[in-house]
Amino acid sequence: MSQPFPALSDQKQPHAWAITPNSQALTQLAKGIWDCAVQTNQRPLVVLSTAGPLIGVRAALEQNRPKDLPSGIAFLPQVISFTDWLEAAPGAWKFPKKQTDLERWLAVYATLRKHKNLQTWFKAETESGAWGLAQAIVKACDTLSTAVSPQLQKQIHEFIQKNQKETSNLGELCLSEAQALLDSTVAKVYSGMARKVVDQETKVLLEFWRYTASVSDPAFRNQFAIAAHLEASKNANSARPLIWVETADPTPIDQEIIGALLNEYAQYAQVIDVKMDWHDLGLWPESIGAEGGEQARIQALENVKRSQSKGWRLIAAKRFEELAWAAAKTIEQHLIHGKTNLALVAQDRLVARRARALLSRLGPALNIRDETGWKLSTTRAAAALNSWLELIRAPKDGPSSKTLLEFLQNPFLDLGKILNRDAEACIGLIAELEDILVGSKAESGWKTFHLAIEGAQANAAKTSSAMPSTALFELLQFARERHHEWLTLKVDCNKAYQLLQANLQAAGMDKSLEKDSAGKQLLEVLKTFDLSKTQYQQTSIRLSEWLSLLKTVIEGASYQEAGKEAKATLSILPLSSTRMRDFEAVVVVGCDEQQLPAYSEPPLFFSDALNQLLKTSTIAMQFVQQARDLSQLLVSCPSVDLLWQSKSNNGEPLRPSAWIQRLQNQIKWEAIPAQLKKRAFEATPMEMAVAHFDEDLPMPLSMSPSAYKALRDCPYRYYVRSLLGLRKNKEFDEGFDASLAGQTLHKLLKRFYHALKTHEHTNPSLKADPDQRRAWMEKSLNDYSEQEFAVLIEGDARVMGALRDWQKQIPSFVDWQIQRELAGWEYFDGEVKVGFDLPFQDADGNIKMIRIEGYADRYDVNIDNSRIASVIDYKNQRFDRVKVRAEHVLDDPQLLIYARAANEGQESHKLTGHQVQQAEWVALKADVSKGEQKALRSQEVVDMAEMMQQFSKQITEDVEQLWAKKPMQAFAPEGVCQYCEARGVCRKGIW
Prior knowledge:
It contains 38 helices and 20 strands. By secondary structure, the chain is an alpha/beta fold. Strand 2 (about 45-50), helix 2 (about 55-65) and strand 3 (about 80) form a beta-alpha-beta unit.
């Protein structure tokens, strides 16, 4: 039960006042503060142990302001959190310089670098692991400093009074007293073998503490601030009354520090120590008092019976998505009922994030304010910066295509500034570069990227199509120069920061980030790396270490959303942030036995028992505090919905929290299943996809061999790809793409055979001497292979494997070539563009023409009769794959198309006057492990003349059916559908 505000007297000790933290707690507190102002005729100072209730206390003071107050106390009393009060200590500028967390991490990290065995002992071999260890060490050192600060409070106060300028004596004093205290604490906790381990652990920690601890540490600075406040109160003519509001249970060490502060302050002014009275509010014995007992159990039962349990709902959902939807729908119903101040307690943060995404669809009428610590690293601004950091850390040869494009596609990049062009001129530039890199399979490396653009320019000139923009080279050069700067930089903390700032300015990202809410906060985080005025500015550090530190700091930073006006506000917050705050309705997600209560793990180096002796937070204290927070929430809020997932992701049943189960045993409170509105509809099974032509759809006037193969494989596939022009977004493979090796092999083979023909004319012995011919072939093929692959290897070292695999094939390939020459064939030409006009009748009986055209890999002519020719198609495949092609030659008639094109008399090409009577595929990946005699490589088209007749009839019928616009069904076998781009359109696998 709340007590009336005490009558103040001249006693030199704090006045105790207890209030019940129910729905009337803020009103009671506000009236008591005004009572203090009236009794003392002074404007009191109200200090809260936590900052959460600040706004609520100020609002309650405004609402409960007494009438006819004297002018001296008419203003609202000052309300401030304990942390802010310490920061506002008088003369704080005289205190030792406050070190940032970054500076303290660097101090510890420098020590770790000097002693690699420490990193190994702590299992922190990686940079990120070492930074995590540095953070844990700093946190542990702060715990030690806090543990000894009460013993040193008197010495620090004397130090302030003497106004000494040197602080080294104080630091030595702190460390000497702390070491003795820690030794005695460890001795009480551990014994036997465990003590040996702890001795080593404690010894290492103390070494770090000796190196890093100083009067600049937060624990010691707090003592300076307390002493400064006490000195100011002592010297003031009339010190203001101090009202200390304990909104959360303090740790024993904090209670000791605050107790000493209040007792000392009471010597100069009135002090009111306000505590929370849980006797009439706690719903469980542990929330009433730490001692518990039968009396606490009875009182908790009475509190439950008095509570407004009709406003509580327990909702169970079976799946994660169902739980998120239930939370969103529950909040939506509260909004429909006119409630405007709501809270979502994120006991399960993943569910809260999903529910937030669902609620964002309600639009700007709902202001969603996230207080759970939304990571800055999850924003698009941080992703943009990270794309540049990934480019920086790329190897010497250059980044991957994915890394380069991710950076160039980030929305904060100013291409106009980089290229010194208008923004409109840069539209589509990155898409053009992506098409070129994907089309040329340029996976990684600056050299590879340049070659890809040069190849695109050459192809554009060859086909008389639009040339790639010249700005692409400038864009690559910009990124390459910045990348080179980082590779040659002898990194220290200051140089790395300055170069990063210069990069952001050169790319125009600094101005773009300034215009973005998250970007602005990101730039503020980056400013913490400006160590130009500290001792750490010239700290030598590897680039990977500095980048890891940068990512660690950004990962630890929280994104603060800007407030906005709205009809209703939803606060997403942890359970602890609901203390002494008013909400019309609260939804709690994650109320299962695994997540409520939620404990924070003991910090590194400290067990729970050691924490207890160091008087810091323990699991038992966290348990009691969460029980009190939940009791306060249930009692003070008129509507509380508790949701939990009744089945885990593994399908195992989950019960509600034990606290909830205990309440269910005392009151009639059944869980209700999540009720989501279901939509009824009749299922209509899908049928085979069939394309029906639109009358306005233009019919093709030309067709390539690959397009005709698509028509034979699946008419629907041809319709989607060739007629509609739909293409799947091309992506980069994680591994090396074999098609790039195939293209290179085609190129070097053409170069080899042309060189062979030239050398046969200049060196007749090359044709007469078989051994000399074989040796020249093998050497030339190896040399050309090295030359053609060299450029690719420079850009992507993974290509080396493809080269070595091909070089193992060269002796066998030369054997096949010699055998072919003995059979009477010699090389004529390669990469020949050939085609023919195919006459057919359309649906109206009119004669039409369609052009069938493609590039043949190679033509040979007969030595005895030069008018007889042969066509060859290289396949960068195994022989068994090539053999399968021969079994279905009419469905893949590439060789037959090239043969008919060469035989067409009206065509004008190099094969004019020759008659192709033979066709074969040649595998470039023969199984050489079986020996040269068994390494089969070529597969000839059987019954060439008959196949040609069947093909001519077949292609005419197929084209006539196409032009007749008959329905095109998706009937391909699974082997074709497996890699078909149109499968997502035809939905095969569903019908």
